[in-house]
């Protein structure tokens, strides 16, 4: 009661009615104060009765109150906590941690978070905090209840330890079916090593069957049904056949769905299973299920000689009658296989370990089969009275192996035997028929490269397929045919009874190539050059016999294409000479055996020398002087032309600089560049380096290229020519008209001129065909604004014809052969009249 009200109610000077009202007011206040105190005590008792730590927080996170459980959990008094920010208890919270809390609470939700709280001694413990709105002393606040998770984590740990101790396989799947946990027993039952993690359990490694032997799709496995339906799948029999190990495992499987609190859809599923393979081994159910994996069971009771085979085993063997004893069982196998299986069974009876072998047989309907037979003595049978095992149909695997073997032996484009296969087969035939005569025909397509270069590899492939079909039709069953590589084919035949068979086959192939080939709308005359070598006369080993046939083929190609040639001792000597040349050629640059001569290029009208072409000469220390037409082809074939070409470029630049330094001025020298050089390393870069080294302008050098550059990769060709032209170098297409020029590319290339081949100039002015070609080339050059140089000018009549045709420059014996550098310098100083 208020003292002032009490005093007033007792004041005698006041009217009685007033004193009575004041007394009633004083009594009411006393009652209200008592009620407020009781409410406070009730709140405190309830607040402190909550078993979890509870905090009252202001909007900024300041702790306004803490219950007794909180003081015990944090090991701090209320006075130590109240007035502090919640970060004191949750040091890992971010500074703005209250923002998402209030946003959630404003939407009417409850904010839940897992954090780590700190005790007074600094130790930590995990909690799950639930926050909600409340009013405290008239202020907008929130209440935060922290549930200690330590005991739950300990329970989870004990649960995991229990799972590892159980001898049943346990696998936990996520909602999407992914494996998130499997215990050691599961790994052991499924055949995985200790230490492998659950990622090794890939369901794709297995095929699944039900109790009736019917295949189960993955989505119908117990665990997926449990996840889909939310119901327990109890004690279902599942067979797991491992695709690689070829082993069937039977499991008794139970799948249990698991739900998160408040949800109706499983978030996980736990599969529990036991290995029941042994229990199923002798059952009829097992025999039916094995049929999916094509595995049957067998048992031989030794004493009475009785055989027992499951239905699947009888089906695999394809027998119409029951097999009652071992002899009847063995009769299903090929004669050569029976002793092998008998020996293996007898060894098991004698104490040997189980056997595992593959044998071949034939079914009653005549179809062949392959089976894998596994057998062992019955465990615990001291007298080995029974031998049991399985047999598996592996015919499909054997057919697949045979298919792979055939693919490994077959050229994928033509379907013929490939190089490795024909070498193996020829070796076997030579070894088996050492006293009989074998022959090899080496077939090379003439002008195939022209089609391949002009129309591309796709057209080339089509031509090769057509060629293979023609060869196959020409040879028929009289020989073995192979594609040896590129556009080269082999025919191998036994000619012991028909000595002239190789020649007849060669002529048949040539006749088959008489009709033109069609590729799309284009038509091409493609012929063949054939070399023939015989064994044992020409060689005893496959490689040598093929090499000798190759030598004969090259001779046929050089003499006249579209023909055949026998290998002879003279050709063998030529082959030896070629190898000798190539060996010496490889050393020629290092031995300084090359030199250059310079043939003048002359103004046909006035006889003035305007340039020179550098021509290479080779004086071999062992072989003597060799003509360029002899060794250049060898250099192209071996790749030595790149190194030789680099030497020629450098030597020409050196000579130009020497002439300049001797006061002769700049003489432009033309140098032939092979396609290998053109397509190899950066040609513009190397030429630029040489010009810088000898301080020469690009105009001092002319590079001559064959027509092949016109039919190769156009973008790269254009780039190289543009880079060379930017250096000031004169660019020319050599021997124009000999090949199959792509005029579209010629129009686009930044070249300066063409060189008319000696093949055509030597026939003018009397040969009409040569005259026509020369006129055509001259017309092309004039229309494209290109310079024109004629090679091989040897008579005055040729010079006059070329002048009338508008050809300004020529070179040839009419003016001079190739001259050593000093002779060329002296010739350059002669009067004009003496040049002709």
Automatic annotation (TrEMBL):
The GGDEF domain, residue ranges: 436-569
Domain of life, source organism: Bacteria
Sequence ranges assigned to domain EAL in this UniProt record: 578-832
Protein's organism: Pseudoxanthomonas dokdonensis
Residue spans crossing the bilayer: none
Xref: PROSITE patterns: EAL, GGDEF, PAC, PAS
Pfam families noted in UniProt: EAL (PF00563), GGDEF (PF00990), PAS_8 (PF13188), PAS_9 (PF13426)
Protein name as catalogued: PAS domain S-box protein
Cross-referenced PANTHER family: BIOFILM ARCHITECTURE MAINTENANCE PROTEIN MBAA, DIGUANYLATE CYCLASE DGCP
PAC domain boundaries: 355-406
Domain PAS stretches: 39-92, 155-192
Taxonomic lineage of the native organism: Bacteria, Pseudomonadati, Pseudomonadota, Gammaproteobacteria, Lysobacterales
